[in-house]
Amino acid sequence: MVDDTSLVLPRTHSLQYFAVVTSEGTKTPEYVTVNMVDDVQYSYYDSTMEKPVLLLDWMNKTMGRKFWDIRIRYILHGHDIIKWSLRNTIQHFNHTGVHTYQHAGGCELDDDGTRRAHLYHAYDGKDFVSLDVDTMTWVAAVLQAVFYKHKREADTALQQITLDYHRQDCFQLLEWCLQYGTETLQRKVRPAVTLIQRKARESAGTDVICHVTGFYPREVEVNWIRDGEALLEDGVWSGEVLPNGDTTYQLRKTLTVSPEDQKKHSYSCQVDHASLDEKMDVKWVPEAALNMGFVAGGVLAALGLIIAVIIGVHIWKKRASGARSPDYTPAQTKEQSDASSNPTNSLYCSRCDPIAEKLMTQTE
């Protein structure tokens, strides 16, 4: 039985950094790092630049120089450390040629106050070592990385700087972001839900895609429900939560329904999100979906015919004009058709969504 009460989905905020250094011999910058808060990039730096750049105006305006001065110090410090890591690893293995070393680290803060911090290293794209913040030790992912573990643990000064950041400073910076960036980081944007029907590729059934998009924050729960009460898992494929280009997110969940089940049961896509007072329930109506598909196809065909007639008349007029004026040179034509504004291309669409419309065109 499905509980209609809207769930309060837990929020997790994060402050993350990603860095890579490359040995000499490439045309790319030797060092590149990006910093992100809640999946939004807020700074960038590479070795060709004099200093890092801040990308979010609200940070600079509200938090002043204190936040940025701390981050710059850690960014430049990270540059030195990762170069040191690559140099020591190459020397230890007596490697030649082009090699890379990567850092990925940061901290996470849950709504209930739970804190987590992490730092992972990779050499040539493979896991190498990681930092256990709780025990103040390094963990070798492969036997060849034991030498690096011993080097880092022996350098007590460097070890203390690294631990201070992942135990204290990172969380302080994140809390500042949440305090001063409330309008951006703690806003709530309702999702738009579109149901798209197509013939299943590997069976005689029908695939029904529940496309949920335009929501913020990232946390969302999407389920397919049968007969208003049974939560479905079999026959359901879920994509990942992916970012849109406007700092919102999207998710697709696909249900495959056999012809027999389509006749016996009803299905709906249920969405729960922090922006909703109660769960959003969008029912799939197979007959309506098929009719809409036919209407969309008919409209597109009619538009194609009209456009063909217009182009034909246009060409005839140009030829006639050219016959009367030998010195006239016809200009090149620009032939475009815009059928994307047709509202019949999507079902249950509260906001027009180009990705959903693209999926609609994939129906077979």
UniProtKB/TrEMBL annotation:
One of its GO terms (cellular component) is external side of plasma membrane. Residues 323-345 are annotated as: Disordered. The chain crosses the membrane at residues 292-316. The keyword Magnesium does not apply. Residues 330-345 have a biased composition (Polar residues). InterPro entries: Ig-like_dom, Ig-like_dom_sf, Ig-like_fold, Ig/MHC_CS, Ig_C1-set, MHC_class-I_related, MHC_I-like_Ag-recog, MHC_I-like_Ag-recog_sf. The keyword Glycoprotein applies. This is Major histocompatibility complex class I-related gene protein-like isoform X1.
